Amino acid sequence: MQRRVSDIGPVERTPLDSPYTISTDLYEALRHIPHDVGGQADLPVPYLEKEEENWEMNTYVTCECLAWRGVWNAEMRRRAENDLGATLYFGLPYYARWATVATKTLIDQGLITPDELSAKIDEVRARLRKAAS
Amino acid sequence: MTRFEIGDRVTVRDATTLFHTRTQAYTRGCTGVVVEHRPDWIIPEDEAWGRDRDGRTEPFYVVRFRQSELWSDYTGFEIDTLETEFSERWLEPAEEAAT
Description:
heterodimer, A: mainly alpha, B: 99 residues, 2 helices, globular
């Protein structure tokens, strides 16, 4: 019986699969809040002259209106961006973070549902694809 | 009533923040001078959780640091400074350097 069980599962667990403990140094690194990057090692970023785009200003105004309507405040938005985690935080453009956490907050509060959001994204994507073809 | 006055030397506490803070990591443990009182406001640690009405309110201070205090490898001018803002809980009186 024991041999049969050992046939169907890995004998050794992959270390990355599930850390049960981590070092104090790793915890120190992990508890660093994503937006607080001042002084961390990084590569030089090229300076770009960039105008605000329509979608960026629309996102900004939408988020301000959500605040005006009592959905959140600016500090909650910033925390929600941290809560995306480092991968999404650093992977998304600045205003895409805003848009992403706005939708997440609306779902959290039950004002929209995940499937409504997905359906809308699919609808727009289909429209853009059609326009491009 | 404010705990610190303009001109006071203050050190930023190195307190643990797991989820949200506006107190930059690079200022922790650094000493600067209070240059401005800011109006009492809800501390970010409460406002970030939507406690607009019942959040804890504290005085805020603008603190001026020498860049060379913040960055051990700073290569700019000695007079270069940086100003940033803290709620009262993040500051403590700077211990006078032994002379």
